[in-house]
Fold:
Amino acid sequence: MGGESYKIWGAVLVAMTVALAIGIVINEATHAEHPEIKAYLVEVPDGENQQVAAAPATPAIEPIAPLMAAADAAAGKKAFKRCATCHSFEKGGSNKVGPNLFNVVGGNKGAASGFAYSDALSAMGGDWSYADLNAFLLKPKDFLPGTRMNFAGVKKAQDRANIIAFLRQYADAPFPLPPQ
Ligand code: HEC
Structure:
């Protein structure tokens, strides 16, 4: 063992250092890729999040037909109290802030005589089907933008069905229940 072996060990040490350095560079390069991968991955859930965020704006309205079959008109009479400040429902009842609602279920929209409906409701036309009443009573201003009915809506689907079942009795001939 002389000066030669130190040279060899020296060479080995240099080689190891270089290998280490290369390893670090490769490692760095691999790490450097991560931000790109993350940036890409973030975009995907972002898209999903937007869908999730958009969902509440257009919620599917629970179908009214099965709820009408189970509706309770007596409970609807109680629930109608929040409507009664603005609406009468008996035949010949007077218009208040809102129109009289006799014959409204299945009847023509905007038909109460002597009531000044909004342009939006007058222009809508057609009959008050169960589905339309369900959507209107959930969120009046979503179903009929420009309506003069200043009322936030009835959140619970069964409450809406109960109210409709109660109103349905106040008609010359109660509108047939929706097919199941
Ligand atoms: C703050 C007063 C107010 C309350 C409370 C209110 N409404 Fe109304 N409602 C109105 C007005 C005003 C109109 C007329 C809307 C228009 O012309 O756009 C109306 C219209 C309606 C119509 C359409 C009538 C037609 O002739 O076409 C129905 C059905 C109705 N309301 C049901 C209800 C029910 C059921 C409730 C309770 C859950 C309720 N409203 C609560 C004021 C009210």
The helical segments are 3-54, 65-69, 73-79, 81-84, 119-124, 130-138, 140-143, 157-168. The first helix runs from residue 3 to 54. The CA atoms of residues 63 and 131 lie 7 Å apart.
